[in-house]
């Protein structure tokens, strides 16, 4: 809402940006099946190209790139806001001279991350569970997604409470020109990196436990 949403005579609804996430998912599903899997199959020798854990790892890494991209765009937007002095006013609806389409790359990256992560997650639960528990394990994967949404709300609430202590405007105030939404994206990128590292740490422990003892 605080970016230029005009493309000639057309004004892009701010909420419609999520459409690019859907477009990205459709695109990457096609590319994934027709191009990436055959290439990966030749490299890894695996029937499905990537293992389930490889896919989830790739998805987690791409999600980090999406958050970093969002932070970079917000840093640039705040820079323009400060140059125009909008960080010193209470006006919250002034459109800055930076087009909203600069947000498209982060939505495309989120779509790619969803394709790798969710496909890997569903296949992991499906192939690694007993036949009698296929439905239950598939439901568990959806449960993890819902719990992630609740965790996201908790993180946002905690960050807002901490950053607004002492009368500060916080990272995500009503007037984003006075806040630091870029800090929030960087914080989430840091959490995602820790999650990414922890996943490979656990995998390394499992791999060592499977090595034959000397």
TrEMBL record:
<dbReference type="InterPro" id="IPR000109">
    <property type="entry name" value="POT_fam"/>
</dbReference>
<feature type="transmembrane region" description="Helical">
    <location>
        <begin position="12"/>
        <end position="32"/>
    </location>
</feature>
<keyword id="KW-0812">Transmembrane</keyword>
<keyword id="KW-1133">Transmembrane helix</keyword>
<dbReference type="GO" id="GO:0009705">
    <property type="term" value="C:plant-type vacuole membrane"/>
</dbReference>
<dbReference type="Pfam" id="PF00854">
    <property type="entry name" value="PTR2"/>
</dbReference>
<dbReference type="GO" id="GO:0055085">
    <property type="term" value="P:transmembrane transport"/>
</dbReference>
<feature type="transmembrane region" description="Helical">
    <location>
        <begin position="138"/>
        <end position="163"/>
    </location>
</feature>
<comment type="similarity">
    <text>Belongs to the major facilitator superfamily. Proton-dependent oligopeptide transporter (POT/PTR) (TC 2.A.17) family.</text>
</comment>
<keyword id="KW-0472">Membrane</keyword>
<protein>
    <submittedName>
        <fullName>Protein NRT1/ PTR FAMILY 8.3-like</fullName>
    </submittedName>
</protein>
<feature type="transmembrane region" description="Helical">
    <location>
        <begin position="53"/>
        <end position="73"/>
    </location>
</feature>
<dbReference type="GO" id="GO:0022857">
    <property type="term" value="F:transmembrane transporter activity"/>
</dbReference>
<dbReference type="InterPro" id="IPR036259">
    <property type="entry name" value="MFS_trans_sf"/>
</dbReference>
<feature type="transmembrane region" description="Helical">
    <location>
        <begin position="183"/>
        <end position="206"/>
    </location>
</feature>
<feature type="transmembrane region" description="Helical">
    <location>
        <begin position="107"/>
        <end position="126"/>
    </location>
</feature>
């Amino acid at each position: 809402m605080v970016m230029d949403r005009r493309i000639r005579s057309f004004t892009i609804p701010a909420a419609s940006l999520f459409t690019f996430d859907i477009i990205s998912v459709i695109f990457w599903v096609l590319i994934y099946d027709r191009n990436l899997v055959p290439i990966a199959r030749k490299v890894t020798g695996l029937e499905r190209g990537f293992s389930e854990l490889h896919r989830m790892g790739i998805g987690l890494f791409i999600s980090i790139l999406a958050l970093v991209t969002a932070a970079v765009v917000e840093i640039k937007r705040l820079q323009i806001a400060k140059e125009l002095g909008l960080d010193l006013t209470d006006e919250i609806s002034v459109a800055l001279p930076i087009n909203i389409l600069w947000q498209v790359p982060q939505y495309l990256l989120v779509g790619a991350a969803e394709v790798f992560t969710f496909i890997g997650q569903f296949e992991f639960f499906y192939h690694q569970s007993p036949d009698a528990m296929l439905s239950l394990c598939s439901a568990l994967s959806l449960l993890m997604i819902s719990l992630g949404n609740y965790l996201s709300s908790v993180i946002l609430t905690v960050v807002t409470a901490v950053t607004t202590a002492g009368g500060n405007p916080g990272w995500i105030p009503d007037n984003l020109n006075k806040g630091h939404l870029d800090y929030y994206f960087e914080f989430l990128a840091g959490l995602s990196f820790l999650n990414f590292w922890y996943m490979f740490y656990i995998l390394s422990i499992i791999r060592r436990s499977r090595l034959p003892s000397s």
